[in-house]
C-alpha cells in the first residue's frame, strides 16, 4: 500500500463516488446523511468512501452534538493539480508541434494543387 500523500490522493480520486462526494462538499459543509442521499449504496459504503477521503486528507469531519459535518480540504487537490500541471506544458508543446506540422502540410497541399491547374 502506498503511503506517500500524492499516491493516497490519486487513489482516493480514482473512484467516481468519492469524486461526487468531493463535488458535493465543494458547495459547502454537510452531514454524512446528506452526502449519502444521491447514492444508491448503503450508508456503510458511504462511510467507507468517507474514510478513504479522510485518509487522503481530502475531507475533515467535525462534531457538533449528534451531527458530524464533513468539509472539503482542497490542499491535497492542489498538490495533485501541480503534479499534473508539470505534464500540461509537455502536452501543450506537443500540440503546438502538431499544429505547426498540420499547417505546413496544408500549405504544401495548397501549393501542390495550384501547380496542377
What does this structure look like?
The chain is mainly alpha-helical and 117 residues long. The protein has five helices and two strands, in the order H-H-H-H-E-E-H. The protein has helices spanning 5-13, 16-25, 32-36, 43-55, 75-116, and strands at residues 59-61, 70-72. The protein has a two-stranded antiparallel sheet with strand order 1-2. The chain is elongated, with a radius of gyration of 23 Å.
Question: Quick summary of this structure?
Answer:
With 117 residues, the chain is mainly α.
Topology:
Blueprint: H1 5-13, H2 16-25, H3 32-36, H4 43-55, E1 59-61, E2 70-72, H5 75-116
Antiparallel strand pairs: 1-2
Helix pairs in contact: 1-4, 1-5
The major beta sheet can be summarized as: 2 strands, antiparallel
Helix and strand content put the structural class at mainly alpha
The general outline is elongated
Spatial gap, N to C terminus? 67 Å
Mean pLDDT: 91
Spatial ordering of strands, largest sheet: 1-2
One letter per element, helices H and strands E, the order comes to HHHHEEH
Descriptive key words:
about 120 residues, mainly alpha, two-stranded antiparallel ribbon, 5 helices, elongated
Amino acid at each position: 500500500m502506498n503511503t506517500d500523500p500524492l499516491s493516497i490522493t490519486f487513489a482516493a480520486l480514482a473512484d467516481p463516488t468519492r469524486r461526487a462526494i468531493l463535488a458535493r462538499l465543494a458547495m459547502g459543509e454537510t452531514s454524512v446523511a446528506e452526502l449519502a442521499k444521491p447514492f444508491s449504496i448503503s450508508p456503510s459504503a458511504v462511510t467507507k468512501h468517507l474514510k478513504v477521503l479522510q485518509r487522503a486528507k481530502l475531507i475533515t469531519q467535525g462534531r457538533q452534538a449528534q451531527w458530524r459535518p464533513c468539509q472539503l480540504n482542497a490542499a491535497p487537490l492542489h498538490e495533485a493539480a501541480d503534479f499534473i500541471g508539470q505534464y500540461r506544458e509537455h502536452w501543450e508543446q506537443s500540440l503546438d508541434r502538431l499544429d505547426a506540422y498540420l499547417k505546413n502540410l496544408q500549405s504544401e497541399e495548397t501549393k501542390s494543387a495550384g501547380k496542377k491547374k
